[in-house]
Amino acid sequence: MMTLAPVNFAAADSGSSPSGPSGQDADLTRTVTGHLPTGVADFVYLPVEVPRGIRQIAVSYTYDRPAVPAGTLGNACDIGIFDHHGTDLGGRGFRGWSGGARTEFAISAEEATPGYLAGPVGAGTWYIVLGPYTVAPQGLNYSVTVTLTAGEAGRTPKPDYPPEQVAGRGRGWYRGDCHLHTVHSDGKRTLEQLAALARAAKLDFINSSDHNTSSAHPFLGPLAGDDLLIMTGEEVTTRNGHFLAIGLDGGEFVDWRYRARDDAFDSFARRIRRAGGIVVPAHPYGTSLASQWKFGYDNVDAVEVWNGPWTTDDEATLLTWDNLLTGAVRRGDGHWIPAMGNSDAHRDPDVVGLPQTVVLADGLDRHALQAGIRAGRSWIAENADVQLSLTASGPHGEHAGIGDRLAVVPDAVVTVTLTVSGVPADSLLRLVSDEGQVLAAALPASGTVSWQTTASLAAYVRAEVRHPAPAGTPAGIPGPAAAITNPIWLDRK
Asked: Which residue ranges does the record assign to the Polymerase/histidinol phosphatase N-terminal domain (predicted)?
């Protein structure tokens, strides 16, 4: 953390409220320039002394982008703001964050730029936070302009959070996408456009997950309906990986200003659960800077193994997740980490619902869906056309579905049945156990394949549906996924 010299306004020194001729509103503007060297702190704070009688605070900024040698990181600087309540980690001061998506923003009681929270501009020390994401060898030259507008504060609109459940929807399979971005962070779609696309994708639920802000939450209520549950959440973008806070209480904000070495993640994971949410690492092998997951998997509720169109980083995440399943077998404590998939859609042509998580829940409500995700009663599909069933049955009528445990004597024959529809005719069906792939079959006309095993040979069985591998793919590497299930566990009794 680095704190710069404060920006002072004359009215703050005199203790009076700024005004123009005959008491008319007036603008007070200050511009601050400076230089940040390489190796600067993750976050640089510029204090702004705000006097009484301010109606709006507006901020704009620029920074230079000098040429750098090939392979060298250039300048990239994010921005946000904290109010007079301070900058304590997880404290009350947060008022907005736009990362690198905007060069200016404004906050008043009545309204705020997307990514920022409307509310009174209270007197005291506010803090503009610069996030020098990367700094060129030449350093980063910045210019920040702050404009205070005097006047009487208006009224802050009452938030309209979406309802937590859709009445009349009982136990069933529900489809959702829990990783989505809008103009409230670095997306290009409005909230209205997002809701329309979710309905077009035949989703039952979505989760609002803009980067490092809760600013969308108050506006989501009117967009929900009997056909669409909208949960309020956040994508928490740290310098050592990103994670989804899914299904938070409306208006809840989760801080992002820490690294794995700071020993802060666990406390925020607990805070998310107290706020009614669940914790899901996003794209653990993401290719962008600081997006790789470095916090481990001891304090998460699920892991996003499929993020948007299938790529090699999804394949790597899937293998890591499968190793975590085998680790759960070794521990023998019954605890395991389920998989889920989300689109991470930002803008056209990103497809909302590619992929989507299909959850068995007791109702279309926040807590039931979260319970289904945590329990692994779910599978992942590339679109709403894909239908899938995976079951395991024992010799005496024992039966288990996705996420369940089937207890049988070690040598009893267990029949695993996979039925798939809505996928291309050239799809490949795979069954995977703790040993690896145990069955690979072309999609039959019936859409059903079966395999027999015992609990002594397989600790779990899960299914994958794959497209053909593209030309030039190395032997043994399957094609992109069309569906992935969580496992059925085979317990020896």
From this structure: 176-240
